[in-house]
User: Which sequence fits this backbone?
């Protein structure tokens, strides 16, 4: 669709979107990272601008994506930096969308000089937990600290395992996280990471579920913003 044919249904609305992956340094030349390309979050930010929203894009590391025209872009590297940047912009946001792949753990300290392979002994890396940015926002809102924030959106990339299928894991994640919408991507061979299309569901806190058929990340973005708009204007 051409941008000038899109509805301006998000006019006057302020949205924070996080995108891309975080990186946690081990030493000056190495890090723990992930395969997030940032494409889904960037597509959301771009489309939200086109639909009239004021958009802050808190961007971790991406596959060299162009910043979306009209969005305020804040670049970060680590999960802690991402939390600071998201927090700095949430107070005035109507909507927060956590599309970023945030590292769950970071090395407990960064070596100041390059870690060497001493006598072929592998170095032991001790990890500590990163803050859960999404859970923090949900908590702040529950405490009454984010009166403007009406819609909080989380993302989950899930595979089935011996404990349950993709949807089972996703439903319990929605409960655990306490967000209003959870966008679920079914991942596996060739799905979701580094590709242009996704397959999954949008789960609502009230139990509503809609399937997201295999489609481009732009079309996914449009369906996600439709669901956000429904909560903003009717919910
Ligand atoms: N998230 C976050 N901060 C973290 C980890 C995750 O804000 N430290 C957000 C992600 O941006 C995403 C949602 O939480 O919107 C779900 O992330 P996910 O990694 O699926 O959830 P986890 O609770 O970390 O569960 P898992 O053990 O499956 O990784
Ligand atoms: Ca995680």
Assistant:
């Amino acid at each position: 669709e051409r941008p000038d044919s899109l509805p301006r249904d998000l006019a006057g609305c302020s949205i924070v979107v996080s995108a891309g992956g975080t990186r946690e340094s081990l030493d000056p030349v190495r890090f723990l990272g992930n395969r997030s390309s940032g494409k889904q979050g960037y597509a959301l930010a771009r489309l939200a601008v086109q639909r009239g929203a004021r958009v802050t894009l808190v961007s971790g590391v991406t596959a060299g994506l162009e910043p979306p025209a009209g969005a305020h872009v804040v670049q970060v590297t680590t999960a802690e930096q991402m939390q600071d940047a998201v927090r700095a912009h949430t107070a005035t946001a109507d909507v927060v969308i956590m599309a970023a792949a945030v590292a769950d753990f970071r090395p407990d300290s960064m070596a100041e000089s390059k870690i060497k392979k001493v006598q072929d002994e592998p170095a032991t890396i001790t990890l500590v937990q990163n803050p859960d940015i999404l859970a923090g926002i949900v908590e702040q809102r529950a405490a009454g600290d984010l009166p403007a924030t009406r819609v909080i959106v989380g993302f989950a990339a899930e595979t089935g395992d011996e404990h349950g299928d993709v949807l089972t894991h996703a439903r319990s994640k929605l409960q655990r996280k306490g967000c209003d919408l959870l966008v679920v991507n079914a991942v596996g061979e060739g799905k979701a990471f580094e590709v242009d299309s996704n397959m999954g569901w949008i789960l609502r806190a009230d139990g509503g579920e809609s399937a997201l058929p295999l489609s481009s990340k732009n079309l996914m973005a449009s369906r996600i913003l439709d669901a956000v708009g429904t909560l903003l204007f009717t919910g």
Summary: The first helix runs from residue 39 to 50. Residues 194 and 200 are 16 Å apart (CA to CA). The chain has one domain: 3-108+122-234. The chain has five helices and twelve strands.
